[in-house]
Amino acid sequence: MHLVQMLLPLNDKEGKRFPNELFDTVREELLDKFGGVTVFTQSPVEGLWKPDKHAIRDHLLIYEVMADVLAESWWHAYRSLLEERFAQDYIVIRSQQIQLL
């Protein structure tokens, strides 16, 4: 079993919040494809990254799904779609193998 997490930015590059419809669409797409989705929305997480000497701060929502098979080509295509929708250079999608207890 694989746990796949997507880190989606709350705001665009100018700091304006994305419309809720964008996030609703992602939730529905994942629910339809995987039969379930967890969205961490109560407190957005804060991400820091440092491309040069100054740190950049992002506020993020985390979406996660579980899948029996990790279809990497589908995930690469989906990441590209999300990068276009959210006008981002790169959106982090990560996976890890898990064991259900």
Summary keywords:
four-stranded antiparallel sheet, 101 residues, alpha+beta, single chain, globular
Low-confidence residue ranges: none
Average pLDDT score:
89
Neighbour order of strands in the largest sheet: 2-3-1-4
User: What helical percentage do the residues reach?
Assistant: 25-40%
What kind of sheet is the major sheet?
Answer: 4 strands, antiparallel
Counting helices, strands and paired strands, the structural category is alpha+beta
Radius of gyration: 14 Å
Order of helices and strands: EHEEHE
Q: Which outline best applies? A: globular
Tally the beta strands.
4
Q: Report the sheet-strand fraction.
A: 35-45%
Describe the structure concisely for a colleague.
With 101 residues, this protein is α+β, with helices and mostly antiparallel strands. Helix content is 29%, strand content 38%. The chain contains two helices and four strands, in the order E-H-E-E-H-E.
Secondary-structure blueprint:
Layout lengths: L1 E8 L10 H15 L3 E12 L6 E12 L4 H14 L6 E6 L4
Antiparallel strand pairs: 1-3, 1-4, 2-3
Describe the fold and architecture:
The radius of gyration is 14 Å and the shape is globular. It starts with a strand and ends with a strand. It has two helices and four strands; from the N terminus they run E-H-E-E-H-E. With 101 residues, it is an alpha+beta fold. Strand 2 and strand 3 form a beta hairpin. The chain has a four-stranded antiparallel sheet with strand order 2-3-1-4, with helices on one face.
